Amino acid sequence: MDIFVWPEVARRQAAGQLPTPFGLERFQILMWADEGRKPQVLLNEEVEIVAHVKLTTSDLIAADGSVPLAAIERVNRITPVNEPNAAHATFFQLNGSYHLVFDFTYNRARATDRLVRAEEFFAGAQSEIDAGRLCTCVELLWSCAELAAIAILLTVPDPDMLTKKSQNHKARREKFEAHGKLNFPAHATLVKTAEAHRAPARYLEGEVPDETELRGLLEDARGLIEYAHRRLRPIGEPEDDASETASSTVSGVGPSKGISGAALQ
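User: That's the sequence. What structure does it adopt?
Assistant: Structure tokens below.
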């Protein structure tokens, strides 16, 4: 708060934009990995969130989907509104309790798009190896591995991932290996290995790996994709979201689990 919130309050007070004294009820600090984009501090009514909650009972849900705040038993997780690529720190009060939520996952929307595409290539690689087409399996495996790697790298605050500095295969591979050795060593060399097999498979320069080796690499790719999913899961979201749906109710439109920030005022 001393770094971001109170200086912003003081700045606005000096500009005549806030009263003195100022009653702080909630704040949100939004942070982006984009080069040159500074954190943004939102105060009180400026804060908009979607809160995923557990209710004391579903009997209190109104016909329009809204619920009284007193019916909220627990806040499981929150996400900022209209900022899918921002990391955030958010503070608010609800039913006499204080909530301070951190989620320093950057570029979640961008990373999710890459991960979805990685899964498409993974499915294609599996189909090709099952059909005995090892060379096309190699090409699809490499695409899958690189896209999953990009998804993971996007989640850390590295501005280079959003510039031309990381738009070539070598730069991405080296970043991924360095990051992977610290966080998921079992999969850190997957992109490099898959890329090394491309020349034999695509350009007939050497021997194509056999089916056993390729299936092992596909299992590595599966593990990397699973790691990426865990990395992208919002703080507070259970691994099996189905169980959470059963125990949670939602306000908003229809059977959604979200409750809009307007309801937290």
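The chain has eight helices and seven strands.
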